[in-house]
């Protein structure tokens, strides 16, 4: 009631208009009380019906009482609606109904009806025992009685303790049953779910770390204290002056980490300019400008080995400065020096220090190293060169210049001629002539991408001359055949065995040649690449399993060899006890179910995806 209505009723002196205040009760409860309908009335009427033997059903009695109450309520509503007195309308507007009281009244009525039903059942059960009623009716009454007694009680689905369901009770389904949990079990279940989510997150995080380590061909393990210190130094590399003295071996590790993270720049490179160094390797010089590159010979004039990868900012002035300042430079490797022109290469090779000391020269990825540049190199340094790399040099387009290699080079230990600008530039005769002059000293031969080569250089060049060869790479040579490779390794007695072999995408090879090669080099082979040799069948691996062992093999690439499956992985794990890395990209029959050693890292399986 509002304050205005309370005040009006307080000022009303008529006792008849006074409404007795009984606390919070609804209009329906007040109405039933005025009509004389209450639990005592219903009970007395029911007992009366039992004494009279009327046989009325208790539900009918209850329904009748409720019907009467509703009918009376309807009459009252009609009389109120027909009243034309505005004062009465105002009084009707002053009446206030509370929904909570209505619900409480209905609950009280339901409780009364339930009690009446229970008494009726007990009464009927007692009378039925005396009068000989049907036993089925008595059983039904007992069942109904048990249901009424258990109604409103809830038992925990987990611990079977009685509790009251609230909005925080957790619903649970288990073994096809559904129920609710008590507060204690609810907290336990919530904690279990929280732990499960955390464990799932940690497992997913660990899978990502394992997958990342696999791609880097490493194993996921706790880092050593030394590795942790190197990592901290790498993260704080900008404070170069505060780092103090660091060992040469650790300097190389830090330099590689910085290059991998693209953090090697004009400032961080100063950490590695130690005058006592003999070798310097910068694997990413893309952020080092020309002026900073000039600091290398200033700080380390006695440097003997220099590796500059991605050195696109290396200018002509830098090369001239190097030729004057480096007194003992014997090894130079440059990748991407495309700003140095043809005349500057000639001037560099003509300088006294370079002409006298340079023994290994490796150059990659530049179009400005031309035919004249190669001739200048051979004229000044050819007789004492022991290592030479000519890779992806579009400026070298003359076959006659390549033919000069066989005349100048006589002491080669390392030779790489890869990806020439034209296929016909590098042919069988060129390689045979080079092998004839350098076969006894040559231990590494890389001919990747020289697709003009055929079986002739294998049988006529390698087999009679390459007695000390340990590394052979002939990737993408699609003209060498299964028969040619078989003849090379069949009775190749002058060669004691190869250690590193790359047959990637030599598509004409098959079981016959690969088995003969493995039979020849099984005791010395360390690394092998058979990627994309699609003619290899599973019969090869079963034959190897019965007849060969590869005790030193540590790396094997079988990517896109479709015959490779879980059985093949198990065979390789058994016959190659030191095999550490096995790549199987593109082989969808290689799964995580393969029976392999725990220390064997298999890279490229679909099941290992992040």
TrEMBL record:
Protein name: Unnamed protein product
Transmembrane segments: none
Single Gene Ontology BP annotation: SCF-dependent proteasomal ubiquitin-dependent protein catabolic process
Gene Ontology cellular-component annotations: SCF ubiquitin ligase complex
Pfam families, alphabetized: zf_Tbcl_Rhp7
Domain DNA repair protein rhp7 treble clef: 154-188
Annotated region (Disordered), positions in chain: 1-22, 73-104
Residue spans of biased composition, Acidic residues class: 85-104
Signal peptide: none
Residue ranges, compositional bias (Basic residues): 1-10
